[in-house]
Design a protein that fits this description.
This protein is mainly α. The protein has one domain. It has helices spanning 3-27, 39-70, 81-90, 97-111, 118-145. The longest helix has 32 residues, at 39-70.
């Protein structure tokens, strides 16, 4: 394993560890309208959503192509994202390209969230928590291939 990929893995491992702390804290809570009255709950949500988005960025924008290059599946970093996703699907790192597309949709939803709509916030937190589990599985498969 190259130093580059090892350092990316190290960074992502740390981000997953931090996100997991927040994820576990959220799992223990009842997330309803009263949940947001406690600033600590809002802080945990914000931390989790930040780490979820950053993880997705780091894995999608940096790690995917680096791993494919390292595995000699590609010889250039200039592949389009859809081509990268198809390669990852062929290697059984992704179940389907749509699974990654769904994670990107969740990230976009979070980026355009209106914090005053409590029901929407609760739905988005649930989506992000489901997405985090999927992201962890993708990352574990990716890591095992290297």
């Amino acid at each position: 394993m190259s130093e580059t990929i090892a350092s990316i893995f190290e960074m992502i491992d740390m981000m997953i560890e931090n996100a997991t702390i927040d994820y576990d804290a959220l799992q223990e809570k009842v997330i309803d309208a009263s949940f947001f009255a406690d600033y600590n709950n809002t802080r945990i949500v914000n931390s989790f959503l930040f780490n979820f988005s950053k993880l997705q960025d780091k894995i999608g924008a940096k790690l995917f192509k680096t791993v494919l290059y390292e595995l000699k599946e590609i010889d250039s970093y200039s592949l389009t994202m859809i081509d990268v996703l198809h390669k990852l699907e062929a290697l059984e790192i992704l179940d389907t390209t749509e699974s990654w597309d769904r994670l990107r949709e969740v990230r976009n939803i979070l980026a355009h969230e209106y914090p005053f709509d409590v029901e929407e916030r609760i739905e988005n937190i649930d989506l992000a928590m489901e997405g985090f589990v999927i992201l962890q599985k993708i990352y574990a498969r990716l890591k095992s291939k290297v």
